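Students often ask why inverse folding is considered easier than folding. One informal answer: many sequences map to the same fold, so there is more than one right answer. In these notes we will look at a single instance of the problem. The structure comes first.
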């Protein structure tokens, strides 16, 4: 499978209950991030292994959806940290709309690794809060 779907699973009730300015560790304690390859969901420094010139999609999911069926997670923005990033983000007008983000990996050497930022919105019990995490991608 060439293309990658990166899924952010959020414990919506737990993350909404965090202090106003939570630490990185507190936020990571409320999420799992995984993808559709051999990168199982985990909450440490997550690295997605991707292929050059492949499509990327980032989606959010409520971890315990059966307990909180109205809770949701929306990926609001993907921010790259480098001017010449291998991650290219598609404009919302080109298909992803407002619920998730799409992009692709441009030309990159095998073994290249890059950190980026996922901004996401969590709604639980009618309360909304915004958070961000810094995972990585690595070209295989």
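Output (designed amino acids):
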């Amino acid at each position: 499978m060439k293309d990658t779907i990166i899924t952010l699973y959020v414990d919506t009730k737990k993350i909404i209950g965090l202090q106003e300015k939570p630490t990185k560790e507190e936020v990571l304690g409320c999420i799992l991030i995984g993808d559709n390859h051999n990168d199982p969901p985990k909450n440490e420094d997550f690295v997605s292994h991707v292929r050059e010139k492949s499509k990327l999609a980032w989606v959010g999911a409520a971890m315990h959806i059966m307990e909180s069926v109205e809770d949701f997670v929306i990926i609001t923005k993907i921010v790259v940290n480098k001017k010449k990033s291998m991650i290219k983000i598609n404009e919302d007008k080109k298909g992803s709309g407002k619920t998730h983000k799409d992009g692709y990996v441009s030309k990159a050497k095998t073994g290249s690794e890059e950190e980026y930022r996922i901004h996401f919105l969590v709604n639980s019990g009618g309360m909304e809060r915004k958070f961000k995490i810094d995972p990585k991608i690595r070209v295989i």
